[in-house]
Each structure stands twice: as structure tokens, then as C-alpha cells.
Amino acid sequence: AVFAIDRMNIDIAVFALSVMAIVFVLRERGTSGAALIGVAAAMKVYPACLLVVERPRRAIGWIGLLLAAGAAFAVWSLLGVFLTRYGIGGAIGGFRTVLSWYDAEYAVGNAGMEYGASLLSGIKLLAYETGGDGRSVAAEVFPIWRVAWIPLCAVVAVATVVLRFPVWARVTIAVTTMLLASPVTGGYRCLFLLIPLALWLAHALRG
User: Fold this and answer.
1) CB 170, CB 52: distance < 8 Å
2) What radius of gyration, in Å, describes the C-alpha atoms of the chain?
3) Spatial distance between the Cα atoms of 1 and 4, rounded to a whole number of angstroms
4) Which of 40, 95, 112, 184 yields a CA-CA distance of 20 to 30 A from 4?
5) What is the pTM of this model?
6) What burial class does residue 109 get, using C-beta atoms within 10 Å of its C-beta: 0-12 exposed, 13-18 middle, 19+ buried?
7) What are the tens digits of pLDDT across the range 6-24?
């Protein structure tokens, strides 16, 4: 957490919004919870995995509210694009440049390996430990990984709901999948594991 703050990372704010969302859900205020998840997901996509806390029949409405809240926050945050001389084209070009650099240095490269917690980071480390070139291995795997990890998380989330797992189990599976499947996962994102832990403790105490 201290590392994330030092890096001016917004994960702490995303985590706080996610915790508030779960609290609202547990207090039967699902609409407020969905709105908070939507705002959090507009900052970083992975809080969307917390949709698994809701019952399947209300999941469609939740997704709609999440998308609406996320879109509203995203539009608000992008207002600067329309108010500067760079315009939309400049903003898109800048985003693509930064994303390409991030993919090359973090997802494929070795930047941030000291705090990487994703499965892709583990594959790179294993390649290095066995005498191989982790960067080359990641370069081959990443193009497929980049396309597949979000659908994979969605499939896992839907499966946990359909199979009627307890809320704490659904959230545990969804959060763990998100942490492992994301191409780049900073170790500070493991803060999100505190959410299923708290849900499990509450479930155990009630039982």
C-alpha cells in the first residue's frame, strides 16, 4: 500500500471504492454498490470481477448500471481532452504510445519484476531460473494472453455464480483469477484479497 502511494498509483482509491461497494451490497443497497464498482472499474478494469457478489437474476441490471457509472466517470475524466489543444487525436495517439511502452517494458520486459504477482510474471521468472530468456518467452505468450485474460476472468466469474458458491468463495475465486490472469499485477493489488478474507470471516462468525 505504501509502495502504491509512493508511485502515485490509484489502486488504493480503487480498493477503497471496492470495499465500500461490498459494504453496500451486504447492507442490501445493491444499486449503490454497483455504482461504486462502476466508478472503480472506470479507473482500473479488474474491480468488475466483484459483480459476482450479486445474484444471477439481478446481474444484468448490475452490469448495465456498472457500465453507465463507468462510462460517466470515464467521460468526466476525459473532458480535458476536449479542452486542450491536443484534441481527441492527440489523446488517442498519446494513449497508444504509452500503452505500447507499458506492454514492452512491463508485460514483456522485466520492469517491475521485483513486485510482479501475475502468472505471466511467474512464467518469465521460471524461464530465467531454468536458464532461458524470460523476455522471449513472454513475447511469444503475451499476444494471446492480452486478448484472452478478460474473457477468462468473465467465464470464471459467471461459473462461480451459476454454481451457487457462497459469496465469499465467489469473490475469492474471482479476485484470485484477476490477480493471476492480468498480464501485469503489482503485488500491492493483493490488497483485494482482504475483501474475500473479510467476507469469509463474517460468514464463519455467522455460522
Assistant:
1) yes
2) 18
3) 5
4) 95
5) 0.77
6) middle
7) 555 778 888 888 899 888 8
